[in-house]
């Protein structure tokens, strides 16, 4: 604690002037301030793209199921929807490390659920129903098909949005459980 005013020599402490050479905080040799760890070690090192791998693995079953219910221009809409959702996933994981970890952890769990694709079928059915609601899919009971570009796009974005939200939710839940465990 410095009691006094700054002088040309240093500081007044208890009425006597003290310069930097006498201050015990500056007793050791000058050292460089430690740097924060950098995300990349070298400029040629590629960024961590685990989230992209998780994204494309999660797209396998929904894409295969989507091919069964889209035709013609609907496939173009599906591909555009996949590109949009890929960009959204990339942006989301770039926002914060916590989002990236939640997306990856939850994404691996959702990817494993493709072995019994109940979640993927339900998400796809909701996505197709959304496209039908916008009159962009033909409702031939019991099957809905999205044959136009907009129909394929709406169905894909709806399906992907549901699956990504589910993956983020699971990932955040796992993170919360880990934080509770770490507090003990």
Report the helical percentage.
Answer: 55-70%
Main beta sheet: 2 strands, antiparallel
Number of distinct beta strands: 4
Please, what is the oligomeric state?
single chain
The span between the termini is 37 Å
**Helix-strand string:** EEHHHHHEEH
Binned strand content? 5-15%
C-alpha Rg (nearest Å): 28 Å
Gross morphology is elongated
Mean residue pLDDT? 83
By DSSP (H or I, 4+ residues per run), the number of helices equals: 6
Structural class: mainly alpha
- List low-confidence stretches: 1-9
Strand order of the largest sheet: 1-2
Q: Can you characterise this structure?
A:
Helix 3 (about 75-95) packs across helix 4 (about 95-110) and helix 5 (about 120-135) packs across helix 6. The protein is mainly alpha-helical. The strands form two sheets. The chain has a two-stranded antiparallel ribbon. The chain is elongated and about 90 Å long. Helices cover about 60% and strands about 10% of the residues. Strand 1 and strand 2 (about 15-20) form a beta hairpin. The longest helix has about 35 residues, at about 150-184.
Brief summary:
The protein is mainly alpha-helical and 184 residues long.
Task: Record keyword descriptors for this entry.
184 residues, disordered N terminus, 59% helix, elongated, mainly alpha, two-stranded antiparallel sheet, two-stranded antiparallel ribbon, single chain
